[in-house]
């Protein structure tokens, strides 16, 4: 096992409920935060019996409930501002995010903008939120982004070339209710993309640079891999690698869905302080250029990132292979197993297959290098050479050269 940094940091919701049936207790959790409840979800989920039953129970308990069910994919800025405006008119005590990462991130952004009515751009980046925000209760229906426990919300701003993130501990939901049963209806592509994203969160938080070697004066939002995040990340690797294939091929398998929900929760708990790195930095421009889902891009890129970074993370890769249950968890065996997992759930093997052109590569490299908070978290210095090697190998679909 690799040597772990001597210090640790976790920041989490005050309460996390996990397990089949937990969603049935969500109204009691929400109730603790006040009487006026804003429910953020989308139209697919607002029509499900589980959502209707939560809505009915809240009303039955005498709460004033407003349902905002037009969450849009990739969270365009205009839709976030419209939601915040509606929310201000309603005056919620608590905002509930019910859905995939998009719905959870919208709930966080609405809570932020109701509490601090300023342009969203004021909050882009790290640690820019001036104080507490309305309490958020997060109820994920995918496994997943881990957004139910993280300090991050991501949106699309037409003035920016890439999706933008607000990262601040103030955005961590006050409570998370994680019920694997809610993910059973997620279609195979959503299961594959959000599930492999959870795997990438786990692997990247375990391989992030161990910058946290002494207590700094002020702590960043992401501090790199650390003592408290590492065990959670490995448990997430074990759960997701063991059950993602089954969850994709048989969505009704509740045992696989349970492993995935727990794995994605652990991965979110880990990357909430450790942070992610190059697969995420490079997915930003790839997602914008090819209009492909977040998890499809991070999953496609992960094998190339690990191959290029292998000289710096040999012990970590062996640890990951061990967590994946490999009989011979060597570096090459782990790299092959990660590649197989990504391929088996239907993720394309190259950026060319997403419609990218070779002439797009320099721009992708330049924009990726601009995501400094993630590039700076990489296990090797995030140089132009390293990112160019990864992006070129990923474009061609051939193993990346290991760069020392
Ligand atoms: N805040 C964070 O920490 C964080 C981390 C990773 C990703 N993200 C963001 O999360 C978003 C992706 O989230 P996602 O992968 O969960 O997908 P999503 O929220 O965009 O949902 C994708 C689709 O799946 C449907 N869906 C979700 N759950 C379902 C269910 N149980 N049954 C049927 N349909 C269901 C939704 O209606 C939607 O149409 C991206 O915008 C990404 O940037 C945020
Ligand atoms: Fe992600």
UniProtKB/TrEMBL annotation:
Superkingdom, natural source: Bacteria
Keywords: NAD, Oxidoreductase
Similarity section: Belongs to the iron-containing alcohol dehydrogenase family.
Oxidoreductase found in the keyword field: yes
One Gene Ontology MF term: metal ion binding
PANTHER family: ALCOHOL DEHYDROGENASE, ALCOHOL DEHYDROGENASE 4
Residue intervals of the Alcohol dehydrogenase iron-type/glycerol dehydrogenase GldA domain: 13-180
Protein name, UniProt field: Alcohol dehydrogenase
């Amino acid at each position: 096992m690799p040597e772990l940094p001597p210090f640790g940091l976790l920041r989490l919701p005050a309460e996390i409920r996990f397990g089949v049936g937990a969603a049935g207790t969500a109204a009691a959790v929400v109730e603790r935060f006040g009487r006026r409840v804003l429910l953020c979800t989308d139209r697919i989920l607002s029509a499900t019996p589980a959502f209707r039953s939560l809505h009915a129970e809240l009303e039955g308990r005498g709460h004033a409930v407003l349902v905002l069910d037009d969450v849009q994919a990739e969270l365009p800025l205009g839709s976030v501002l419209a939601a915040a405006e509606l929310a201000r008119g309603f005056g919620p005590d608590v905002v509930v995010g019910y859905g995939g990462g998009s719905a959870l991130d919208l709930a966080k952004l609405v809570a932020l903008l109701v509490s601090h009515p300023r342009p969203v751009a004021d909050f882009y980046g790290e640690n820019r939120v001036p104080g507490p925000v309305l309490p958020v209760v997060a109820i994920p229906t995918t496994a997943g982004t881990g957004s139910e426990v993280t300090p991050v919300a991501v949106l699309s701003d037409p003035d920016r070339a890439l999706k933008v993130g607000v990262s601040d501990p103030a955005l961590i939901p006050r409570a998370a209710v994680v019920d694997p049963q809610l993910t059973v209806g997620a279609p195979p592509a959503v299961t594959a993309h959000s599930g492999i994203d959870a795997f990438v969160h786990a692997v990247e938080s375990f391989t992030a640079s161990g910058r946290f070697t002494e207590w700094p004066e002020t702590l960043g939002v992401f501090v790199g891999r650390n003592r408290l995040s590492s065990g959670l990340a490995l448990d997430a690797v074990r759960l997701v690698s063991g059950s993602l294939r089954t969850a994709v091929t048989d969505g009704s398998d509740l045992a696989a869905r349970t492993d995935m929900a727990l794995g994605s929760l652990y991965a979110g708990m880990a990357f909430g302080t450790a942070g992610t790195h190059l697969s995420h930095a490079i997915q930003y421009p790839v997602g914008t250029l090819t209009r492909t889902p977040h998890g499809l891009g991070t999953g496609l890129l992960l094998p190339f990132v690990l191959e290029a970074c292998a000289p710096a993370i040999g012990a970590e890769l062996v640890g990951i292979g061990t967590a994946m249950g490999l009989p011979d968890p060597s570096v090459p065996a782990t790299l092959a197993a990660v590649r197989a997992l990504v391929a088996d759930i239907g993720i394309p093997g190259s950026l060319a297959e997403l419609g990218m052109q070779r002439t797009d590569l320099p721009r992708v490299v330049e924009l990726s290098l601009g995501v400094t908070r993630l590039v700076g978290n990489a296990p090797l210095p995030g140089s132009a050479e390293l990112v160019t090697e990864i992006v070129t190998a990923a474009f061609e679909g051939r193993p990346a050269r290991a760069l020392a």
